[in-house]
Design a protein that fits this description.
- This protein folds into two domains: about 300 residues, Spore Coat Polysaccharide Biosynthesis Protein SpsA, Chain A, CATH 3.90.550; about 50 residues, no CATH class.
- The protein contains twelve helices and eleven strands.
- It is of the alpha/beta class.
- Helix 5 packs antiparallel against helix 7, helix 5 packs across helix 8 and helix 6 packs across helix 7.
- Strands 1, 2, 3, 4, 5, 6, 7, 8, 9, 10 and 11 form an eleven-stranded mixed beta sheet that branches.
């Protein structure tokens, strides 16, 4: 029986706001051979105290590293990779969370498959209050089950969309040696990636290997105002880094995809290392375009909080002046008009609140048959 490989979960910690939830999610993993590393780049002691106060399962090794000086996101990420002892590495951002089965599910994509360079899983966006947000292209589900994709084919899709629909750093599992190989060049201070570091890293990995996608949701990616991607210097770097990515992807070489927008794939269970793969082909580019169009038709496709999503939803529920003028004619054209009778329950005896409720009923564009209370 082969030994279970060691996996390192490394947390480049800076903001203590959601750090405890991120750390606890790493310690709650069901995988049996795990180390958790915290590289503290914060200005205070709150992250250190959280680490010292947490309960660590006997099966997990927890290490805390305090940086001698501020390294910034790029430097701290590199420090995490250098501290990792495992053959496989999960870089967990300090505001994200892993579901308990995450490592156990993802590591299966690497076992006995030397051609696999990256394993990702479905991720769900949530806001600072732990409320789940609507799906968007960046976290769409583009496969079923556990699927192996030809890495080079996906580079063509990434080049045409320039949207990272694969995963964020927290949702990916990679080989530690690859992180140590690529991150030094990608994270050069002042010249390296910060806004699209995950995209650039994945592109490097897929140039030389394949991708495994687990369609199950295994991580939560938190969107909130203090998030790194919302910081001014990161937003300012976005356009420049997208140009870098275009250049990187345009210079790629290797076996071309079956056709523009198409990728080769197969069920992971049918892939045997060392034997020719019986690839199937899919028009993934067209599928992503359809998903993107569908997402844009929904409310809240770019909202980072439920408050903003609800506000946008309310605005969609209000008829504009042109719609209001057309409404009477539309109602008259109905073959059948349902009769609506609201029932108001005044259990608290609050006359002001009761009047507000009755007023809202009287103001309805579609009048009630009667109101009972």
């Amino acid at each position: 029986m082969k030994p279970v490989p060691l996996v390192s979960i490394a947390i480049p910690a800076f903001n203590p706001l959601f750090f405890q939830a991120a750390l606890q999610s790493a310690l709650n993993q069901t995988y049996s051979n795990l180390e958790v590393i915290v590289c503290d780049d914060s200005v205070g002691d709150e992250i250190r105290r959280i680490v010292e106060d947490c309960e660590v399962p006997q099966s997990i090794r927890l290490r805390y590293v305090r940086n001698d000086r501020r390294l910034g996101f790029q430097g701290n990420l590199m420090a995490c990779a250098q501290e990792a002892s495992g053959d496989y590495l999960k870089l967990l951002c300090d505001d994200d969370q892993l579901l308990p089965e995450c490592i156990k599910q993802q590591i299966e994509g690497f076992i006995d498959r030397d051609d696999v360079n990256l394993v990702i899983a479905q991720r769900q966006f949530c806001d600072g209050d732990y409320i789940l947000l609507s799906e968007r292209l960046e976290n769409c589900c583009f496969s079923t089950g556990i699927t192996l994709f030809k890495g080079e084919d996906l580079l063509g899709i990434l080049e045409s969309t320039l949207v990272n629909f694969l995963s964020g750093l927290s949702g990916a599992l990679l080989r530690t040696r690859h992180a140590l190989e690529y991150l030094p060049a990608l994270t050069q201070v002042g010249e390296g990636f910060v806004a699209r570091l995950d995209f650039a890293l994945f592109a490097c990995l897929l140039r030389r290997g394949n991708l495994v996608v687990v369609s199950q949701v295994l991580s939560l990616e938190r969107l909130h105002p203090a998030r790194l991607s919302n910081q001014p210097h990161v937003r300012n770097a976005l356009a420049t880094e997208l140009d870098w990515l275009k250049q990187m992807l345009a210079l790629r070489s290797g076996e071309p995809a079956p056709a523009p927008g198409w990728v080769r794939y197969m069920a992971l269970a049918d892939a045997v290392d060392g034997q020719p793969y019986a690839w199937e082909e899919s028009g993934l580019g067209r599928s992503l375009s359809f998903i993107h169009t569908l997402v844009l038709s929904r409310v809240g496709d770019d909202c980072d909080s439920f408050v903003d999503l609800y506000r946008e939803w309310l605005s969609c529920r209000t008829l504009n002046p042109a719609q209001q003028r057309l409404l009477p004619a539309r109602l008259q054209g109905w073959a059948w008009r349902p009769r609506i009778v609201p029932i108001v329950i005044d259990s608290e005896g609050n006359s002001v609140a009761l009047e507000d409720t009755l007023k809202s009923i009287r103001q309805q564009v579609y009048a009630a048959e009667q109101c009972l209370r």
